Amino acid sequence: MPHRAKQIAMGERLRSLRIEMGLSQDTVAEQVRRTRQAVAQWELGRVAISAMQIGQLAAIYGSSTDFLIYGVKTVPVNDESLCSRCPNGGGYISRVLRGPLVEERPAN
């Protein structure tokens, strides 16, 4: 997907989450210390969003940054056996799996 199309898709997710939560662009702008116009531009996919702002928006919307950026939902992992299959106790993978989210692919 071209970069511009990814920005538009992320903007649509941002708008949808904001509306679901019953928040105005002004309210979101205030919480991330930006203008309402900046929030509108993000939702239209016209302006890139910094990593820090994506993190702030994820917290506001109770979402993951993966969902905001890629549209990938995450789910809790409660299967410790996944970690036990990793070499050397799992290392990085073990920490990721235990902690608390793993990617869930959208159904096609």
- Terminal residue distance: 16 Å
> Shape, please?
globular
Looking at the chains present, what oligomeric state does this protein adopt? Answer: single chain
Q: Percent range for helical residues?
A: 55-70%
Mean pLDDT: 76
Strand fraction: 5-15%
The main β sheet shows up as:
2 strands, antiparallel
Low-confidence stretches: 86-105
User: Structural class of the secondary elements?
Assistant: mainly alpha
Can you count the helices?
A: 7
The strand line-up of the biggest sheet is 1-2
Which H/E pattern describes the elements?
HHHHHEHHE
Gyration radius, in Å: 17 Å
Task: Give the strand tally.
Answer: 2
What does this structure look like?
The protein has helices at residues 3-20, 25-32, 36-44, 51-61, 65-70, 81-84, 91-98, and strands at 73-76, 101-104. Helix content is 59%, strand content 7%. With 108 residues, the chain is mostly helical. Helix 1 packs across helix 3 and helix 2 crosses helix 3. It is globular and about 25 Å long. It contains seven helices and two strands, in the order H-H-H-H-H-E-H-H-E. A two-stranded antiparallel ribbon has the order 1-2.
